[in-house]
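Quick one, tokens below. Sequence please?
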């Protein structure tokens, strides 16, 4: 939203509840509503040229109450239908790299040609929900709505107000409250680079196309070393093998259910860190002019933004 305002756009934001985060952004008009209530979306879309849909429910712990699938699939469809009804020209759907079936090809590098996850039984609920929402929204193109999909990887960087799950990991590293690391890796990307990619997809993206927005695959050990460079705090000495983390995850998940606290890790989280594929953003680079910054800069700026808030 900061980037859109900087580019001279009028920005209207849909929120469910009062948001101190959004109130800090000058020039944003707040509209209250819910993606699961289609009627409430009409005022948000009215008079708008374009819609960015980023709302979703992230889970590494299944979908016990059905809210992940409901929010990510039905919520996305509600937004798309509201956009159609309001005469919106283009919708940018923010999906996820996890919508792709990492095992669908034998190649070592994942790109947009990979098939989407197509089974609720063989994939985490979150992965399936993002793939299904992507399919459903793209199916509305023949009705007159231009749709471009972006698929970010693991997003880190400044202005992490919640904080996010990865933001909390960085805070735990700083406070020495993380007992160990997991011997896994993932593609991480700066939130500001993703924002640029999303904006460029509005300007240059081809309707009906998906664009992976990533940077590079790094291990959690390397991420912890970047954090040490900024904070001076030595990361945990023990790095848990993936097989051990996966084997003990059911006990961690069970303890979480008993205590009501978030699990330190889950089977789905460990599986995500075990995919061992490089992610290609070549298509976004060539068609959108997408580019990224060094991850060390992202980690430095993340801690600086936390410092400004006294964290």
């Amino acid at each position: 939203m900061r980037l859109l305002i900087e580019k001279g756009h009028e920005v209207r934001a849909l929120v469910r509840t009062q948001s101190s985060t959004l109130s800090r952004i000058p020039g944003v008009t707040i509209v209250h509503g819910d993606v699961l209530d289609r009627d409430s979306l009409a005022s948000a879309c009215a008079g708008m040229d374009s819609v960015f849909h980023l709302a979703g429910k992230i889970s590494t712990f299944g979908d016990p109450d059905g809210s992940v699938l409901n929010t990510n699939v039905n919520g996305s469809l509600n937004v798309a239908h509201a956009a159609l009804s309001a005469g919106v020209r283009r919708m940018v759907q923010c999906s996820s790299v996890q919508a792709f079936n990492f095992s669908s090809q034998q190649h070592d590098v994942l790109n947009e040609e990979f098939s989407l996850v197509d089974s609720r039984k063989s994939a985490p609920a979150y992965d399936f929900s993002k793939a299904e929402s992507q399919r459903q929204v793209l199916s509305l193109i023949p009705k007159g709505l231009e749709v471009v999909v972006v698929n970010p990887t693991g997003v880190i960087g400044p202005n992490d107000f919640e904080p996010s799950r990865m933001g909390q990991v960085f805070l735990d590293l700083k406070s020495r409250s993380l007992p160990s690391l997991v011997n896994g890796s993932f593609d991480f990307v700066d939130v500001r680079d993703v924002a640029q990619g999303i904006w460029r997809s509005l300007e240059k993206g081809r309707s009906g196309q998906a664009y992976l927005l990533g940077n590079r695959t790094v291990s959690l050990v390397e991420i912890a070393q970047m954090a040490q460079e900024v904070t001076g705090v030595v990361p945990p000495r023990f790095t848990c093998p993936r097989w051990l983390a996966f084997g003990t995850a059911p006990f961690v998940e069970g303890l979480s259910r008993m205590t009501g606290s978030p699990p330190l890790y889950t089977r789905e989280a460990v599986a995500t860190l075990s995919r061992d594929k490089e992610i290609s953003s070549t298509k976004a680079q060539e068609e959108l002019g997408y580019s990224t910054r060094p991850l060390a800069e992202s980690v430095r700026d993340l801690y600086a933004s936390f410092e400004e808030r006294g964290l």
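The chain has twelve helices and 13 strands. Residues 156-187+216-311 form a domain with the Rossmann fold fold (CATH 3.40.50.720).
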